[in-house]
Specification:
Layout lengths: L3 E5 L2 E7 L2 E6 L8 H9 L14 H11 L6 H15 L9 E5 L4 H14 L3 E6 L5 H11 L3 E6 L3 H9 L6 E5 L9 H14 L5 E7 L4 H7 L6 H17 L8 E8 L4 E8 L3 E5 L4 E5 L4 E8 L3 H11 L2 E7 L5 E7 L2
Parallel strand pairs: 3-6, 4-5, 4-7, 5-6, 7-8
Antiparallel strand pairs: 1-2, 2-3, 8-15, 9-10, 10-13, 11-12, 14-15
Bound molecules: N,N-dimethyl-L-histidine.
Pfam families: Methyltransf_33 (PF10017)
GO molecular function: methyltransferase activity
Keywords: Methyltransferase, Transferase
């Protein structure tokens, strides 16, 4: 990355060339450290590890693999909807839009939208918001492939990036949040997050959200218990990460992956199950963790929705519904809303 050349409020601006720039917050923000978050989430009676910690380099690679296992239908289904949606999107775009993506996303999905936007606009700006600096690698390929594209990356949390966008300029934004990542929030946090997106948007901006739908329990449970065991590796990898980064002594052989669908709460619940009574030291969190045999450490919720719930939720926040696209099997949805 090049040298910082300009400051914008509490962000530093890094100009790489005329088509690529990044903003990164100064390190002065007070955020809880990994060690502190693990100390409080594993120090409770009902033990948990926040799912955002899945995504170190190995975890992100494993997630990429999950996306192409046979049982995990969401990614390929969402791609199939995006393929048919992109031409219909023009009905809802009046004028030029910047593409703002929460998460730097799978390039296949981003590219489907960029294909359409760069073909129909003279120039297109892509604004990925992502805490990981992986942005740098994918940007180069995108700039090579789309000559009328420029990229402004925000290396920050989604909330931080949205706050940044709010006062950035007057251009119209098409904000996308794909992959049913929204389903990993708790309902309360999810609602707050939608309010945050809504408050960021100017009248005329659009928001496209991809959400997984309620379906047969067997299909859902297979998607999170794939036969190749990739999801299990992904789940267990968070313990390796804690071992490496927080100086802990989890023995991965003493844990198993457990994922089950809770019909009442409409969510896959993912846990790590302790296979024996054991104690684990997490040095940097200053914690001695005591686990009973069969005790569960919660690692993720993945909520599933009914169409009416999606529409009610978006409506409650204040969005105006434009359109929902589905695949033939009605497994997955993409909903476009606006702020008027
Ligand atoms: C990132 N997120 C939407 C995935 C999901 O389906 O909830 C994470 C995942 N966990 C296990 N498999 C995939």
């Amino acid at each position: 990355m090049s040298n910082p050349v300009q400051k914008n409020k509490e962000y530093k601006k890094f100009i790489v060339d005329s088509r690529l720039q990044y903003f990164k917050p100064h390190a002065t923000r007070i955020e809880k450290t990994f060690a502190e978050e693990i100390s409080s989430s594993l120090g409770r009676n009902l033990k948990s590890i926040p799912p955002k910690f899945f995504y170190d380099k190995k975890g992100s690679d494993l997630f990429e693999k999950i996306c192409s296992v046979l049982e995990y239908y969401p990614t390929r289904t969402e791609i199939s909807i995006l393929q048919k949606l992109k031409t219909e999107l023009s009905l809802f775009l009046d004028g030029d839009f910047r593409l703002v993506e929460l998460g730097s996303g799978s390039s296949t999905k981003t590219r489907l939208l960029l294909d359409f936007l760069t073909a129909s606009q003279k120039t297109t700006e892509y604004f990925p918001i992502d805490i990981s600096e992986i942005l740098a690698e994918s940007s180069e390929e995108l700039l090579n492939d789309y000559k009328n594209l420029s990229i402004t990356g925000i290396i920050d949390t989604y909330e931080g990036g949205l706050e940044f966008l709010k006062t950035y300029d007057d251009k119209k934004n098409l904000i996308i949040f794909l992959g049913s990542s929204f389903g990993n929030f708790s309902p309360v946090d999810g609602y707050k997050f939608l309010e945050k997106i809504f408050s960021t948007m100017k009248p005329g901006d659009l928001f496209l959200i991809g959400l997984d739908l309620v379906k047969d329990t067997s299909i859902l449970e297979s998607a999170y218990n794939d036969s190749k065991g990739i999801t299990a590796k992904f789940n267990l990898n968070v313990l390796s990460r804690i071992n490496d980064e927080l100086d802990a002594d989890f023995n991965l052989e003493n844990f198993s992956h457990y994922a089950v669908y809770n019909e009442k709460d409409q969510r896959i619940e993912m846990y790590l199950k302790s296979l024996t009574e054991q104690s684990v030291i997490i040095s940097k969190s200053d914690l001695e963790l005591k686990l009973q045999k069969d005790e569960l450490i919660h690692t993720e919720y993945s909520h599933k929705y009914r169409l009416s719930q999606i529409h009610d939720l978006l409506d409650d926040v204040g969005f105006e519904l434009k359109h929902t696209w589905l695949d033939d099997k009605k497994y997955f949805s993409l909903t476009l809303v606006s702020k008027n």
